[in-house]
Design brief:
Elements: H1 29-50, H2 61-71, H3 78-90
Helix pairs in contact: 1-2, 1-3
């Protein structure tokens, strides 16, 4: 017997980032850009999952950007939105 889906949970508190640590020195600039993009995509994917968006097909760029605004993250690029959907797809 299938289990009924729980009602989507609304985000009631703004996202509070963890204490920042310095990134390792000596990496090429592209490494830092990719690293920060992955972190942002992970934060957005978690926020979407918390708000009831469970499938990548439900996470359109507009919804991802609205979630970013809701939790206080700068609007993501198209590449970051694609990464968010990829994280949601492969985390299953």
């Amino acid at each position: 017997m299938p289990v009924p889906a729980a009602a989507p949970m609304l985000i009631d508190l703004p996202y509070t980032p963890l204490a920042k640590k310095a990134l390792p020195a000596g990496q090429p600039r592209d490494w830092y850009i990719t690293h920060n993009r992955r972190l942002k995509a992970m934060r957005l994917a978690i926020a979407l999952l918390d708000s009831g968006v469970y499938l990548p097909q439900q996470a359109h760029n507009r919804r991802i950007r609205a979630t970013a605004e809701l939790v206080g993250i700068h609007p993501p690029s198209d590449t970051t939105c694609h990464m968010v959907r990829a994280l949601m797809r492969y985390s299953r």
